[in-house]
């Protein structure tokens, strides 16, 4: 089965003034939004730090984005645990009061 919609294709994105051909599957607009986010993070870090090389800015941006990802994962895990605890309490309540 040769479905062209699932094959990767080159999409050119601009990050920090450089064009990068990216082979990607899926929505081109999504890929461009991701690249724009990376570009914005690099620009922000450039404004806030003394980092002056694209490599250093890219590494600092990667660390910042990774930190955001880890924080979101921790928050998600906290919310899952909170949900599971509430579900357990509800099950206990139903069993105690309704014999369910």
Q: How does this model look, in words?
A:
- This protein has helices at 28-48, 54-98, and strands at residues 9-15, 18-24.
- 4% of the residues are buried.
- Helix 1 (28-48) packs across helix 2 (54-98).
- It has one domain (4-98).
- The model has no long low-confidence stretch (mean pLDDT 92).
- The chain contains two helices and two strands.
- The protein has a two-stranded antiparallel ribbon.
- With 100 residues, it is an alpha+beta fold.
pLDDT averaged over residues: 92
From the alpha carbons, calculate the radius of gyration and give it in angstroms: 22 Å
What is the H/E order? EEHH
**Number of structurally distinct domains:** 1
| Class of secondary structure makeup | alpha+beta
**Oligomer type:** single chain
Amount of helix = 55-70%
Give the spatial strand order of the biggest sheet.
1-2
Count of DSSP-assigned helices:
2
């Amino acid at each position: 089965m040769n479905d062209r919609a699932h094959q990767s294709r080159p999409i050119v994105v601009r990050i920090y003034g450089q064009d990068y051909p990216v082979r990607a599957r899926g929505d081109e607009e999504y890929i461009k939004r991701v690249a724009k986010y990376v570009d914005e993070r690099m620009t922000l870090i450039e404004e806030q730090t003394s980092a002056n090389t694209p490599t250093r800015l890219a590494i600092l941006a990667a660390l910042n984005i990774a930190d955001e990802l880890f924080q979101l994962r921790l928050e998600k895990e906290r919310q899952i645990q909170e949900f599971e605890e509430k579900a357990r309490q509800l099950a206990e309540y139903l069993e105690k009061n309704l014999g369910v």
